[in-house]
Specification:
Length: about 250
C-alpha cells in the first residue's frame, strides 16, 4: 500500500458548526506530500494551519474532500480506525509539549505504546532508545517540571518516535521556546527527517524556522496561497554550532 506519496489531499474542507453559525476553517485544500519531504506550513493566526495538521494526523475528519494517507483513503474512517492509524504511523509534537506532569520522563515516552500491544520489557527498551536518540538519557527518572522547556520538547519528540512513525506532525513546536532553543529543537526534527527518513510537516509562525524545511506552504483563510520549494534549506546543527562559536568568542 505504501507508495511514494505520503499525503494526498483533494479539495479538503472543514466546516465547524458553532450553534447556528458555520466556521469554514478549510476551503478546498489540494496537495501532495511525498515520503521524505520536510514541509513548513505558515499563515496568520486563524488561517487553518492547526485544522489542516489535525486532519493530516487523523485527529479530525474533513467535512468534504478526500484524504489519502500512504495511498489509503482515510477520509471516512471511524474513530477507532483513525486511532489505530495514528498510533501506528503518526507522531505528534505540539507547542505546549503536552507531557503528563505527574509521571517520569521514561513513563511519558512509553504512553503511545500502551495501546500498541507492546510488552512491558519492549516498552522500556524502546523508550530508552528514543530518549537516547534525543540525547536525554540522564533525565530518565526526572519529571517534566524538573527539566527545561527545550528538554521537555525533546522528550515529546522521543514520545512521538517510539512507535516508529512514518510521519511527524509538529504544530508550532518552537512557539514556546527562545530562539537558540528553537534551533536546537529544529535540529532534532531535521535529524528525524534526514537520518530516519521520516516525512515532516511543521507549522510555524517564524520565517526563520520555516527555512529549515525544504518546502513552504502558505495558507490564508483555509486556502493554499503559495507552495514553494526552498532552495537553500538551512542546517540547524550547523547554525547551532556557529552560535556556540560566537558565544565562545564573546566569553
Ligand atoms: N474545534 C473548533 N470549533 C470551532 N471552530 C474552530 C475549531 N477549531 C478551529 N476553529 C476555527 O477554525 C479557524 C481555523 O483555526 P485553526 O486551524 O486553529 O487556525 P490556526 O492554527 O492557523 O491559527 C479559526 O477561525 C478557528 O476559530
Ligand atoms: Mg494553530
Amino acid at each position: 500500500m505504501s507508495g511514494k506519496t505520503a499525503i494526498m489531499m483533494e479539495d479538503i474542507e472543514k466546516v465547524y458548526q458553532m450553534g447556528v453559525t458555520k466556521v469554514h476553517a478549510l476551503n478546498g485544500i489540494s496537495l501532495d506530500i511525498q515520503n521524505g519531504e520536510m514541509v513548513a506550513v505558515m499563515g496568520a493566526s486563524g488561517s487553518g494551519k492547526s485544522t489542516l495538521l489535525n486532519i493530516m494526523g487523523c485527529l479530525e475528519r474533513p467535512t468534504g474532500g478526500i484524504y489519502y494517507l500512504d495511498g489509503e483513503n482515510v477520509s471516512q474512517l471511524n474513530k477507532d480506525q483513525l486511532a489505530a492509524i495514528r498510533s501506528n504511523r503518526i507522531g505528534f509534537v505540539f507547542q505546549g509539549f503536552n507531557l503528563l506532569g505527574n509521571v517520569s520522563v521514561l513513563d511519558n515516552i512509553q504512553l503511545p505504546m500502551i495501546y500498541a500491544g507492546v510488552t512491558k520489557k519492549d516498552m522500556v527498551n524502546r523508550a530508552k532508545e528514543a530518549l537516547d536518540w534525543v540525547k536525554l538519557s540522564k533525565y530518565i527518572n526526572h519529571y517534566p517540571g524538573q527539566i527545561s522547556g527545550g528538554q521537555q520538547q525533546r522528550v515529546a519528540i522521543a514520545r512521538a518516535l517510539v512507535n516508529n512513525p512514518t510521519l511527524i506532525l509538529a504544530d508550532e513546536p518552537t512557539g514556546a521556546l527562545d530562539s537558540k532553543t528553537s534551533i536546537e529543537i529544529v535540529s532534532v526534527i531535521q535529524r528525524l527527517n534526514l537520518e530516519k527518513g521520516i516525512t515532516v510537516v511543521m507549522v510555524t509562525h517564524e520565517k526563520d524556522i520555516a527555512h529549515y524545511c525544504r518546502r513552504l506552504i502558505n495558507i490564508k483563510d483555509g486556502k493554499i496561497v503559495d507552495d514553494t520549494l526552498l532552495l537553500n534549506q538551512r542546517n540547524a546543527a550547523e547554525d547551532l554550532a556557529n552560535l556556540e562559536k560566537e558565544r565562545d568568542v564573546e566569553a
